[in-house]
Amino acid sequence: MYHVVIGVDDNEERAVACARAVADLPGAASDTRVTIIHSFTDNPSGASAAQIGSVREATEYLEERGIDVDVTESSGDPAEQILDVATAEDANLIVVAGRKRSPTGKALFGSVTQSVILNADRPVMVAGDTEN
C-alpha cells in the first residue's frame, strides 16, 4: 500500500490540483491510501476539516477514482502539522500545492510548501497551481 499525505489549505483549486497529482501517480488506485490534513490557524466557527470546501473537493475527487481517503485536522503551524502527520502515518510521499510568489513575498510571509520541502525526511511532490 502506497500512503500519501496531502496538506490542504482553504483553496479548492489547489486542493484539487494535489488530488489530481495523486490520482495520476503510477499504480492502481486500490493500492493507494491518502490522508488529507487541514491545519486550522483560526477556527471561530468550530468547523471540522471535513466541512471545509477544499477538503471536501479533494476527498470527492480521490474517492471517485477509487482511492481510499482519511481526513485529519490539527491546529498550529501547517508545515509542522503536515510533517508530523507524515511521520506518524509513515507516509511514502507528501503532496503540497505550489503557487507563484515573488522571492520577497516568500521571505516576508513564509511558505508552508517551502518549509515542508526543506524539513521533510521523505519525498515531497509540489502540485501545480492553476492561479496566476
Q: Please, could you describe this protein's structure?
A:
By secondary structure, the protein is an alpha/beta fold. It has one domain: 3-Layer(aba) Sandwich (Rossmann fold), CATH 3.40.50.620. It is built from five helices and five strands. The chain has a five-stranded parallel sheet with strand order 3-2-1-4-5, with helices on both faces. Helix 1 packs parallel to helix 2 and helix 3 runs parallel beside helix 5. The longest helix has 12 residues. It starts with a strand and ends in a 5-residue tail after the last strand. This is Universal stress protein. Belongs to the universal stress protein A family.
Give a quick summary of the entry.
It comes from Haloplanus litoreus. The chain is α/β, with parallel strands linked by helices.
β-sheet strand percentage: 15-25%
**Cα Rg:** 14 Å
CATH architecture designation = 3-Layer(aba) Sandwich
How many domains? The number is 1
Using the coordinates above, name the CATH class: Alpha Beta
State the low-pLDDT regions, or none. none
Gap between N and C termini, in Å? 35 Å
Give the key terms.
Rossmann-like_a/b/a_fold; Universal_stress_UspA; 132 residues; globular; 5-stranded parallel sheet; Rossmann fold; alpha/beta; single chain
